[in-house]
Design a protein that fits this description.
Strand order of the largest sheet: 1-2
Number of strands: 2
Number of domains: 1
Distance between the termini: 7 Å
Strand content: under 5%
Shape: globular
Helix content: 55-70%
Radius of gyration: 19 Å
Number of helices: 17
Order of helices and strands: HHHHHHHHHHEEHHHHHHH
Structural class: mainly alpha
Length: 344
């Protein structure tokens, strides 16, 4: 998607997001552990991986608000993203059903929901109303009817009928529209406040206060988890933070992480991931191919934790190097294809 002015730290943040997704997918594929891990190292690794999608979607919302694409172009982009989601699923038959919705189908829905995102991010009063609406939905989900579904991974990746596909896309899939639209709305709200050549994330008392509150929430719940002997955060079994489904605790913690990384990249001009950000869609789609081909290596070679960790680091770093080299051949990327099919 094209914006009026190129912000290099946004590309770098997008690059970090896609590389973290590569890392977490590789770590899940080559995982010697057979049980839930609650060590500091496990939380640190899971925390970085858990920030990948929130950062990706928030930056995506930031781009949506600044995009000047026509309705026709948006329909083309949404259609291509749905098609690419199918390609990803077909490249990873050991992970997904062919029609399982994922993050690319979420991006397609967010493009189609642009008018709603524009409305929700237009004024502070609209953001407050949107926040109240989201909290109300969560209260209904927790106390009246289970909208988001159970924390069963196998159910979330199963889409064997049209109704199941729609349900996974909207509320109970891996990346359903609710609640992931929250990140896009926040990103769009931040995108509205940017002036050409200005800060992409306002460094004001509100931003710093929200970040501080989020950090306090994480610290307090982590202490409570340690005292009670429970699992603080886990993809499906966390007592305070869960990713599938994404609960309010996860949204607070991950958005705090997004703000921290954004401020760091902006204030210290961290651009090392810029090349990856320009090819984020290409990297995301392509990394599933070698990962699927090599998915049994950990079992075949009986890797130790150290060997698996080294494989994850090497695999992730390889895509960073790939981006540096491949950016010289922009016409061989998915991003280039999208630009050719649209007017922007």
């Amino acid at each position: 998607m094209t914006v009026n002015f190129r912000f290099r730290e946004i590309d770098s943040l997008r690059g970090l997001a896609v590389l973290l997704m590569v890392m977490v997918h590789a770590a899940a594929t080559w995982n010697p552990f057979q049980s839930t891990q609650t060590s500091i190292l496990a939380y640190f690794t899971a925390g970085l991986g858990g920030l990948a999608a929130p950062l990706f979607v928030t930056i995506f919302g930031w781009g949506i608000i600044r995009s000047k694409s026509s309705t026709r172009d948006n329909l083309i982009k949404a259609s291509l993203l749905i098609l690419l989601q199918l390609v990803v699923n077909l490249c990873s038959p050991h992970l997904y059903d062919p029609f399982t919705p994922g993050i690319l189908s979420l991006f397609a829905l967010l493009i189609l929901a642009k008018p709603l995102i524009l409305l929700a991010s237009s004024k502070k009063s609209s953001m407050v109303f949107f926040g109240v609406f989201i909290v109300s939905i969560y209260l209904i989900d927790n106390f009246i009817i289970n909208i988001q579904g159970d924390n069963d991974w196998n159910v979330r990746i199963t889409a064997d009928s049209l109704s199941a596909v729609l349900s996974r896309m909207l509320v109970d899939g891996t990346y359903p529209l609710f609640p992931w639209i929250c990140y896009a709305v926040v990103g769009a709200f931040l995108g509205r406040s940017v002036k050409e050549g200005g800060k992409t994330l306002p460094r004001n008392s509100t931003t710093l206060l929200l970040t501080l509150i989020g950090m306090c929430y994480c610290l307090i719940t982590m202490i409570m988890s340690n005292v009670n002997g429970t699992v603080w955060a886990h993809p499906t079994k966390g007592d305070y933070l869960t990713f599938f489904p994404a609960n309010i605790g996860f949204i607070i913690a991950s958005m705090t992480g997004v703000f921290i990384f954004w401020l760091l990249f902006q204030e210290f001009n961290i651009l090392v991931f810029e090349s990856s950000g320009k090819l984020s869609l290409t990297i995301y789609v392509m990394h599933f191919i070698p990962l699927t081909i090599l998915s049994n290596l950990e079992n075949e070679r009986d890797w130790t934790v150290m060997e698996a960790s080294q494989a994850v680091v090497l695999f992730t770093t390889a895509w960073l190097i790939f981006a540096f080299v491949w950016n010289k051949l922009q016409w061989l990327t998915i991003e280039s294809l999208i630009r050719k099919l649209t007017s922007r």
